[in-house]
Write a structure and sequence with these properties.
- It is a single chain.
- This protein has 445 residues and is mainly alpha-helical.
- The chain is 43% helix and 10% strand.
- The protein is built from 18 helices and eleven strands.
- The strands form five sheets. Strands 3-4-7 form a three-stranded antiparallel β-sheet. A two-stranded parallel ribbon has the order 1-2.
- The protein is elongated, with a radius of gyration of 30 Å.
- It binds one RNA strand of 75 nucleotides through strand 4, strand 6, strand 7, helix 4 and strand 11.
Length: 445
RNA sequence: GGCCCCAUCGACUAGCGGUUAGGUCAUAGCCCUCUCAAGGCUACAGCACGGGUUCGAUUCCCGUUGGGGUCGCCA
């Protein structure tokens, strides 16, 4: 590539960052990083009505969360600013003047329209190949509007102007823009500029493949991952796998591994259905390998989001509690259900499990477990484990027979962290209290 | 409907003329195990159809069907 690689992500501030948009941003970012190029963020806020500061923040926070840092754009500056279309009026005026002088524009009820040359246009696309569009019929390809009667600009025009002004070398965007490409090529022609390399990437479809993913669909918003207990690396990894693959059967790849492998000719042409299950699976993989301090930090956030109050617990208690939950959940948001018992004495006991395990036969065993725990010199994992195993042997039962009722009494559930570890974290006092509280649930006869 | 793109297990994909069509998610079973996960093993499951080209098509060409996109003074 002779020209420096300059790519851009050009979202409209709608207050919503779509996964499809995030994936487009990701591919642009990867391409820039792969070629030592520049990744530009440009905010296409020509539609003043729905343009708010909060909506722009949604874009920033979504990209930042995914680790997609931009080299030029809002907040970081650059030589081709401003990076908000709403602030680039003077530039657009200049280009309109140029088009006007070339006789390419005409007035239509106050709106400005671009007169199509009515020829065949070939779009050269790095992923789709060369595609010819016959633009000769105005019925199927009406002249595009460039400016509304109120003076505001239309997407096609400002998009092309900005790409020219910002020296964008490759336009990587969703395939839904493919049919816009010939219009844009006409504009480049009228402006006397060579078009950039286009790369229309496949769309992300709903889970059933019926249509583009839209606002209503689960997982369509980046914000939903931030709030939903996902790790950004996992979501980013999953997004890489939609329309691209390393071709060597790897699924879990760090972004550093993806960068050198990423290129436009490896991008698929087929739209991909979105599978939140697989994304969650990957999230579990990442969660499992997270350093403990980061897992604890993210776990705290997730618990707090779920409404679990952590303020009354020491940092070491919360850390130890969360450590026993490591590798056990796929989503951080599952933590409150999985380990919530650590932070509240007020949990219900699973009724079905109570019926099965709080039996008359188990009552004396439960009592024996309590005595064994009471008698322990020190209440730590090895001591607890040794004592309970010894007791099981002594009573001639398998250890589960002892552990099920114990787990039920101390956590309310039959599923949870390692029994010995959770008892140690809970501490003797709390453990015995919970056992005492459960005692009356056993049948007396 | 016009135009454009696409077509391998339910999903994401590998394959770029000769393969027992591979991997991953999901599903089922087994093993491991203090539960739940994780992990290991196994199973299930795919080249849309019809013509060509070729000694030979999942792979190349054409058509059909199917799916998606797009036809704004939205972006």
């Amino acid at each position: 590539m002779s020209n420096p690689v300059r790519v851009r992500f050009a979202p409209s501030p709608t207050g919503f960052l779509h996964v499809g948009g995030a994936r487009t941003a990701l591919f642009n970012w990867l391409f820039a990083r792969r070629h030592g190029g520049t990744f530009i963020l440009r905010v296409e806020d020509t539609d003043a009505a729905r343009n708010t500061a909060e909506a722009v923040q949604v874009i920033y926070s979504g990209l930042r969360w995914l680790g997609l840092d931009w080299d030029e754009g809002p907040l970081v500056g650059g030589n081709c600013g401003p990076y908000f279309q709403s602030e680039r009026n003077a530039i657009y005026e200049r280009y309109v003047e140029q088009l006007h002088a070339g006789g390419h524009l005409y007035d239509d009820g106050g709106a400005l329209r671009f007169r199509s040359p009515r020829k065949k246009v070939t779009v050269h696309d790095a992923v789709c190949g060369s595609i010819e569009f016959d633009m000769s019929d105005p019925a199927t390809h009406p002249d595009m509007t460039i400016r509304r009667p109120d003076g505001s600009w239309i997407f096609h025009f400002v998009n092309v102007v900005d790409d020219i002004e910002m020296k964008v070398s490759h336009v990587i965007r969703g395939e839904d823009h493919l049919s816009n490409a010939p219009k844009h090529v006409e504009l480049y022609g009228a402006l006397g500029v060579l078009p950039p390399v286009f790369a229309h990437i496949p769309l992300i479809l709903k889970k059933d493949g019926k249509g583009k993913m839209s606002k209503r669909d689960e997982g369509s918003s980046v914000a939903s991952y931030i709030a939903g207990g996902y790790v950004p690396e996992a979501v980013r990894n999953y997004l890489c796998l939609l329309g691209w693959s390393p071709k060597d059967n790897r699924e879990k790849l760090s972004i550093e591994e993806v960068i050198p492998l990423f290129d436009l000719d490896r991008i698929n042409r087929k739209n991909a259905a979105f599978d939140l299950e697989k994304c969650a699976w990957l999230n579990g993989e990442y969660l499992r390998e997270l350093p403990e301090d980061r897992f604890v930090a993210l776990g705290r956030e997730a618990l707090t989001r779920s409404g679990v109050s952590l303020s009354q617990f020491s940092e070491s208690y919360v850390g130890a509690a969360l450590a026993t939950c490591r590798g056990k959940v796929r989503l951080l948001n599952e933590l409150s259900a999985y380990g919530g018992f650590y932070f509240s004495d007020d949990f219900p006991l699973n009724a079905e499990a109570v019926a099965k395990h709080f039996t008359a036969e188990n009552a004396p065993r439960f009592q024996a477990v309590r005595e064994s725990l009471t008698a322990l010199a020190s209440f730590d994992v090895p001591s607890i484990e040794t004592a309970l195993k010894a007791l099981a042997a002594q009573l001639g039962v398998k250890i589960v027979v002892l552990l099920h009722p114990l787990r039920l009494a101390t956590t309310g559930s039959l599923a949870g962290p390692s029994m010995y570890h959770l008892l140690e974290v809970l501490g003797r006092e709390k453990s015995l209290d919970r056992m005492d509280r459960a005692m009356p649930r056993f049948p007396t006869a």
